[in-house]
Amino acid sequence: EPEVTQTPSHQVTQMGQEVILRCVPISNHLYFYWYRQILGQKVEFLVSFYNNEISEKSEIFDDQFSVERPDGSNFTLKIRSTKLEDSAMYFCASSYGLAGSSYEQYFGPGTRLTVT
Amino acid sequence: TQLLEQSPQFLSIQEGENLTVYCNSSSVFSSLQWYRQEPGEGPVLLVTVVTGGEVKKLKRLTFQFGDARKDSSLHITAAQPGDTGLYLCAGVAANSGYALNFGKGTSLLVTP
Predict the structure, then answer these.
(1) Distance, first Cα to last Cα, chain B
(2) CB count, 10 Å around CB of B61?
(3) pLDDT tens digit string along B49-87?
(4) Who among B45, B50, B98 is closest to A56 (CB)?
(5) What end-to-end distance do the CA atoms of chain A give, in Å?
(6) Interface-testing mutation among B35, B50, B98, B106, with chain A (most A C-beta atoms within 10 A)
(7) B103 and chain A: CB distance < 8 Å anywhere?
(8) Measured between alpha carbons, how far is A90 from A34 in angstroms, rounded to an integer?
(9) Between A43, A55, A58, which is nearest B43 by CB?
């Protein structure tokens, strides 16, 4: 069964460093998303991406963050100059469409980012 | 602002019991999804409901979407220890983009 994959599973970085989180969405999906979940809190939307551009972003997704689809399979989230409060699980998700059941978002296993 | 309120927050029951968890909002949703999440893992999609009043069944799990598309429920019949986990509802608010808004979840523990 197709699934979303993410690498690395755990990333430790020092405050101020840049990190890139990688995702491979389900192959025939057209819409890609990043969410984050701070320990003990709910899952929060960061950004959605379609046709090589951002289609929607939350107030969390400021200039520190960027997304890219560098090739036909990968979808990346870059965090510049990480802060302690960026420590969280970051989930990638993808969906085929935006309407009805085609809108179902499938999540990857997540990358645990620890900023020290 | 907590768009989706889930209740109860925690639920501990014995194997064989039935249970219902709720997901409520004052907002109308275009669609609503239920996920199950294990510690340290990503949410796993269980079901999507789209039409007001819709009922979907997945083995012992029954999902219902409210007529006004503002609330949903998940009913589990004859719970088993394997049902233990965090159940999340998430929805797309009508006329508000396509981001999923998540509730905080109901943590279910089923003991043998």
Answers:
(1) 38
(2) 18
(3) 999 999 999 999 999 999 999 999 999 999 999 999 999
(4) B98
(5) 37
(6) B98
(7) yes
(8) 7
(9) A43
Query: With an 8 Å Cβ cutoff, are A107 and B98 in contact?
Result: no
| Backbone angle region of B40, left / alpha / beta, with phi > 0 → left and psi within -120 to 50 → alpha | left
At A12, list the tokens: 């430790």
Token digits for A53?
């551009």
**Predicted local confidence at residue A101, as pLDDT:** 60
In this structure, which amino acid lies at residue A98? Answer: L
pLDDT(B110) > 60? yes
Query: So what's the pLDDT on residue B1?
Result: 52
Maximum C-alpha span of chain B: 45
- What span, in angstroms and rounded, lies between the C-alpha atoms of A112 and A89? 4
Mean pLDDT score, B79-106:
92
B58: number of Cβ within 10 Å: 11
Q: 């984050």: which residue's tokens?
A: A36
H or E segment to which residue A113 belongs = strand A111-115
Other Cβ atoms within 10 Å of A12 Cβ, number: 13
